[in-house]
Amino acid sequence: MASVLPYQGIYPKIHESVFLAEGACVIGDVEIGEGSSVWFNTVIRGDVCPIRIGCRTSVQDNATLHVTHDTGPLSIGSDVTIGHGAVLHACNVRDHVLVGMGAVLLDDAVIEPFSIVAAGALVRQGFRVPSGMLAAGVPAKLIRPVSDAERQTIKESPQNYVRYVNTYREGGYEGRG
């Protein structure tokens, strides 16, 4: 069962359509939009600042989303795919972004629309990935513009996760806390 917990009297606001998988933990000042999914053993901890997640965004297994009181909230747009084991900390991820598995995004980083943060990348504090770019490496550097095929993947990935949720629910797994 997922855990949805208050922090200092503030409860998460989770749209009724959101899929919360077993082991997911959502705490405090968190808002999650329609059609989004939070997969197994993910932690979204909005204790010292808010976390906002848009619509049709998937936060995959074992991801960690947190904030810091010094730099402020974590904002994730709509139609975003956050890969398994990614760590996002007090950054701003705009709409239509793919964050690869195991990527780390630090405070005040900004990822603009239709960009990709490669698997295993470390996006340092305050770094900006412009729209339509691939960032990779440790620390992440701008590598090249995303290809047309990659742009299509960015568009399709959120829809794939909406379908995955539907197959879980059709199989009898509701995925709510």
What does this protein structure show overall?
This protein is mainly beta and 177 residues long. It has a single domain (1-169), classed as Hexapeptide repeat proteins (UDP N-Acetylglucosamine Acyltransferase, domain 1), CATH 2.160.10.10. 13% of the residues lie in helices and 37% in strands. The protein has one helix and 20 strands. The strands form two sheets. Strands 1, 2, 4, 6, 8, 9, 11, 12, 14, 15, 17 and 18 form a twelve-stranded parallel β-sheet that branches. An eight-stranded mixed β-sheet has the order 3-5-7-10-13-16-19-20. Strand 19 and strand 20 form a beta hairpin. The longest helix has 23 residues, at 148-170. The mean pLDDT is 96.
Helix count, per DSSP? 1
How far apart the termini lie comes to 6 Å
CATH class: Mainly Beta
- CATH level-two architecture: 3 Solenoid
Rg computed from alpha carbons, rounded to a whole number of angstroms: 15 Å
Which runs of at least 5 residues are low in confidence (pLDDT < 50)? none
Main pleated sheet: 12 strands, parallel
Percent of residues in beta strands? 35-45%
Counting structural domains, the number is 1
Shape, please? globular
One letter per element, helices H and strands E, the order comes to EEEEEEEEEEEEEEEEEEEEH
Helicity range: 10-25%
CATH level-3 fold name: UDP N-Acetylglucosamine Acyltransferase, domain 1
The total strand number stands at 20
Mean pLDDT: 96
User: What is the CATH superfamily label?
Assistant: Hexapeptide repeat proteins
Structural class: mainly beta
